[in-house]
Amino acid sequence: MTEILSLRQLNRATLARQMLLAREAVPVPEAVERLGGLQAQEPKPPFFGLWSRLEGFRTEDLHGAVHDRSVVRATFLRGTLHLTSAADYVALRTTLQPMLDGALKVLGDRAAGLDRPAVLEAARRHLREGPRTFNELRALLQEDFPEVNDRALGYAVRMWLPLTMVPTDDRWAFPRTASFTLADTWLDAPASDVPDDEALALRYLAAFGPATAADAQTWSGMAACGEALERLRPRLRTFQDERGRELFDLPEAPRPHEDVPAPARFLPEFDNLVLAHADRQRIISNAHRPQLTTKNLRVRAVFLWDGFAAGLWELERKRKTATLRLRPFASLPREAVKALTAEGESLLRFAEPDATDQQIDVVSPT
C-alpha cells in the first residue's frame, strides 16, 4: 500500500532539503546546487536567501563564488535569471533549451525577421570583443538587423545563447545594469551538448521533493519532466499526498517527522521555496498565496513560522535607522513574535551593519 504523506510531512521534507530546519556549514557552490539554484532576478535576494540557510554566511562568501566562477548568474530555470553552480550550468543548460525556445512565443509579431543562425553569429561576434550590457548589445544588433525589432533581438539572444553575467565589486556582486559575456568563454568550457532531463529531475527532487510531475514542471518550465520521472521510476520511491496525487522522491532523501521543530526564518523576494511547486500549500496556504505576488509580478519576501509562510516582510532604511517591518497574515502567538524578533535583529545586522538604530515593527493584521 502506498504511503500517504501529510501536508506537514511535505513541509518538513522540503524545509530539510532547503536547509531551513537548521543552518548548515557548506560551501556556497555546494549550497546553490543542493538548493536547486537561487532565483536572481535582482542581485540582492540570493544573499539573503543564503544567509537564512548557511551557518556563518558572509556577503564575501557569495562574492567569492561568483568571482571565482564556481557560481554563475544566468538565464536558466523558467527562462529567468538564476544563480546556479558552474557545474550545473554546464551540465543542464542544453536540457533547458526547448523551454527557452518556447519562451519566444511571447514576442508574437515582433519576432518577424529573426534569423536564428545569423543573429547568434552576430551576437557571438560582438561578445567576443568584450562583455556587453543588453542595451549595448541590442544597439549593435539593431545596426546588423535594422528591419528587426530591437527588443526581439535582445530577448532572442537571451533565450538562444548561453550567457553569464559578469560580477563586479558592487555590494551585491552585480550592478543594476550588468554586462553579459559568452558562457563558454567565462567558464572555459562549453555547455554539454547532450540533454539530460533525468539529471534535471533528480536535481529537483533532491531540492524540493517529494513532488508531483506537475511540481517539477512548474520549477523548471519543462513540459517533459513527467516523462523523465517515469523513466526514473525504478530508481525512485513513490508516495501519495492527502489528495491522492502521486509523489516521486529519492529513496534516501530526508523526510523528517511532521513534528520536527521549524525555526523562524526570513526568505527574500523571489525565493524558489515559494515558487517551486504547482501546489504550494506545503509552504503557503491558498488563502494567502494571492498576497505573494504584486501586480507587476514581483514575488514578495515572506517569513516562516512553524515552517509555513506566516506573513510578508520588508526592510526600510532612513538615514542611520534600519527598520524590519513584518506584516503577518494573521495574529501571531507571543512565542512567534519573540522568535521572529530575535531572527529579525540578526537579519538587520547582516543587511544593514552600519545602521546605528535597528528596529522591528510588527504590523497588526487588518
Describe, in plain words, how this protein is organized in 3D.
- With 366 residues, this protein is an alpha+beta fold.
- It contains 14 helices and twelve strands.
- It has helices spanning 7-17, 28-34, 45-51, 59-67, 86-92, 97-102, 116-128, 134-144, 150-160, 183-187, 197-208, 213-220, 225-232, 334-351; strands at 38-39, 71-75, 81-85, 163-165, 180-182, 237-240, 246-249, 265-267, 302-305, 308-318, 321-328, 357-362.
- Strand 6 and strand 7 (246-249) form a beta hairpin.
- Pfam families: AlkZ-like (PF06224).
- GO terms for molecular function: DNA binding.
- This is Winged helix DNA-binding domain-containing protein.
- InterPro entries: AlkZ-like.
CATH topology title of the domain at 284-362? GMP Synthetase, Chain A, domain 3
State the shape: globular
Contiguous helical run count:
14
Rg of Cα set: 21 Å
Largest sheet: 5 strands, mixed
**What is the CA–CA distance across the termini?**
45 Å
Organism: Actinomadura harenae
GO molecular function: DNA binding
InterPro entries: AlkZ-like
Keywords: DNA-binding
Which SSEs are present, and which pair or pack?
Layout: H1 7-17, H2 28-34, E1 38-39, H3 45-51, H4 59-67, E2 71-75, E3 81-85, H5 86-92, H6 97-102, H7 116-128, H8 134-144, H9 150-160, E4 163-165, E5 180-182, H10 183-187, H11 197-208, H12 213-220, H13 225-232, E6 237-240, E7 246-249, E8 265-267, E9 302-305, E10 308-318, E11 321-328, H14 334-351, E12 357-362
Parallel strand pairs: 11-12
Antiparallel strand pairs: 1-3, 2-3, 4-5, 6-7, 8-9, 9-10, 10-11
Helix pairs in contact: 7-8, 7-9, 8-9, 11-13
